[in-house]
Amino acid sequence: MNIEALVNLSFLLIELILVFIGIKYSSRAAEYKNFIEGYTVPSSILEKFHPHYPDLTKEQMEKIISGFKIFIKCYVSMNTIHIYAPPIPAMPSKLVDKLWHEFSLDELEYNQFCSKALGHIIHYHPIKEGIYVKGMDVIWQYSCGQEGIDDCNPKKLPLLFAIDQEAAIENGLTYDLISCGKKWGFVSI
Question: Where are the domains of the chain?
Answer without folding.
Answer: 30-183
